[in-house]
Amino acid sequence: MGAFRNKAKMAVAGSMDAPTLGLADATGFSTDLRDCPLYPADMQQALDTLAEFVSRAKLPPYDIPQRQGELKFLLLTRAAGSGEFLLRFVLRSREAIQRIDKQLPWLRQQLPALRVASANLLPEHKAALEGTIELPFAGPGQLELRINERTLRLGPRCFWQTNDAIAAALYRQARDWCEDIDPGSVWDLYCGIGGFALHLANGRRAISGIELATEAIACAQTAGAGLGDERLQFHAADATAFAESHRDAPDLLVVNPPRRGLGERLCRWIDTSPSRWLIYSSCNAETLAADLARLPRWQARQARVFDMFPHSHHFEAAVLLQRAAA
């Protein structure tokens, strides 16, 4: 399966006049990946345009061995449905921001699909992809994603799956399970930008999406407002703290934790809660297995594997669990 990736996380190396976009190691050796077949053709073309932009805006690539230069990464995300782009410049300092801003009209003319652009500051010399400060350029702050029949919103610092087609299949599976169960209430824990919650909303059931990242919640709230479902709500909170602070529990729990899994505290709460159904979406089979072992009062009813990351040994798994009879 080729041309499936909707994200290009490109280290910028080489020189200002001849930049490479792709991989760079600690010795300064770089591999250009602009023509990588994992990216759709329009993303490959966009990356070529961005390489030209690096020269035009006079952005010196960051030299890892020398710890000099300004531009560390270009992070490009393609929107499902529209093919529009969200672009982030990861910079060592603010030194190049004015030059980027000055040349952005040229970039938008050459790349009409560019919708959202921002700068991210990563001043430290460390193995990280981004820093904590995001500086938006003029224009919209969110990218629209069309997944199945839902419109989601994505901000620069929000997580999104790398494979739109498989993400859409994952959400359809969760929706199908939910329709069979027909719960009156749902909590979507670690909801991100609201993919599961938006797909499960039908105007009748009460759904709360919980996510610690405030930018993701802002995107989810915008998407929820567009759906017009008053029973769908999103809250910025820690998933474990949110659950532990409630005496009640929904009919259905949906959890989509990071690779580290749910952990002992949340598993303990889920295991003793009055909830009857659980949908667990995981990108890490080892932590999924560990968490399921912490849920002795639950029984797996159905499971499905999704090839979210073709050409690798990684995959996404979804499991439908039911509380075991006493």
Q: Concise description?
A:
Helix content is 28%, strand content 30%.
Descriptive account of the structure:
The protein has 326 residues and is of the alpha/beta class. Helix content is 28%, strand content 30%. It is built from eight helices and 16 strands. The strands form three sheets. It has a seven-stranded mixed sheet with strand order 3-2-1-4-5-6-7. The protein is elongated and about 70 Å long. 40% of the residues are buried. The model has no long low-confidence stretch (mean pLDDT 96).
Helix content percent band: 25-40%
**Cα distance, first to last residue?**
45 Å
SSE pattern, N- to C-terminal = EEEHEEHEEEEHEHEHEHEHEHEE
Number of alpha- plus pi-helical segments:
8
The major β-sheet equals:
7 strands, mixed
The mean pLDDT is: 96
| Rg measurement, Å | 21 Å
Strand content: 25-35%
Which features characterize this protein?
seven-stranded mixed β-sheet, single chain, elongated, alpha/beta, 16 strands
